[in-house]
Prior knowledge:
2 copies of one chain form a homodimer.
Chain A: H1 2-14, H2 21-28, H3 32-38, H4 42-67, H5 71-87, H6 92-99, H7 109-132, H8 140-157, H9 166-177
Chain A binds a DNA duplex (18 and 18 nucleotides) through α3.
Amino acid sequence: MELIRAAAMLFRDQGYERTTVRDLGNAVGIQSGSLFYHFRTKEEILVAVMALGITSTTEQLKRAIDEAITPRAKLAALFRVHLNSLLGDNQAALEVMLYEWRSVSAAARPGLIVLRDRYEALWQQVLDEAAAAGLIKRDTALLRRTLLGSLHWSVQWYRSEGALSVDQLAEHMLDLVLLPQT
Amino acid sequence: MELIRAAAMLFRDQGYERTTVRDLGNAVGIQSGSLFYHFRTKEEILVAVMALGITSTTEQLKRAIDEAITPRAKLAALFRVHLNSLLGDNQAALEVMLYEWRSVSAAARPGLIVLRDRYEALWQQVLDEAAAAGLIKRDTALLRRTLLGSLHWSVQWYRSEGALSVDQLAEHMLDLVLLPQT
DNA sequence: GTCTATAGGTAGATAGAC
DNA sequence: GTCTATCTACCTATAGAC
């Protein structure tokens, strides 16, 4: 578990391919050979990182949606949870999930796709409710994809030293998509 | 030039690190050693791919903006050119630009950043005009970042075999951001 | 400008001791 | 479970012939 967290940060910062099993061992204070007692291959570590990133974000989102009451509050939760997971203190894992797909073997992909689809289904459901309430435009399938793209991209430019907190950024991004209320 | 195009596709499909100089040689029918007559390092090839991706897109965008007359038409051009460059027949290069930053050495980054900033400045200018004309919301700096994120992400899910052409997709994405006209 | 051949380095993974 | 030691393979880049 400590290894998975450390691996997430290394994979995010250097990329999966550039990170060696020796780097991974160093990060947790063991020799590279010892890793292979816990994992059969380096790729297994990558898959574990990705699975952690998406499942923990999904669980947080589920909880936030259940606690929110109005469609508007649920909609806000999408942005808030996703950005906090992506930009927050301890979540390099989700970023690895987004940027290291090409290094996942065909055999391991289906399992991760199931996890991703589960997460996106939550989004779809909340967006549909919001559209029904007249909060956002009606093309929710395309909206889901564009919004997730917008949020994912934030890792490329958001800096925590800047003027905006993550929660504030979530609010601003929400504003961009809300329809003017009549 | 033929090499740069071939390299773009290989880097996009397999990633830069997983693509060997032997792969690159194979793709253009020469031995791997011969590559180093044209480029000093493998990284130089990566930088050339990225530079091609962003500069050719910038030029296309410049032309499209000049030909467009209304703010609305210029705005549409942003979406159309970007998506065609990203999803079109021969433009793996731009995708490499987006996904292989980590493999670019610190020495080579500044040059690419200049090219990227030039492209984004075009965007900013068109968005500002559109906001002044009341077409889109006023927070154009954030809008630029979210829109570019949305467009970039399309490579992850857009399939040309699907129902939507690239130009149609551009139209739909434009619709999502346009304000209802009073 | 492309070839063959290879230097020099490092990668992921394994074996057996403790 | 972790160590040391090492295997095998492959990588980027170079050298010199043509």
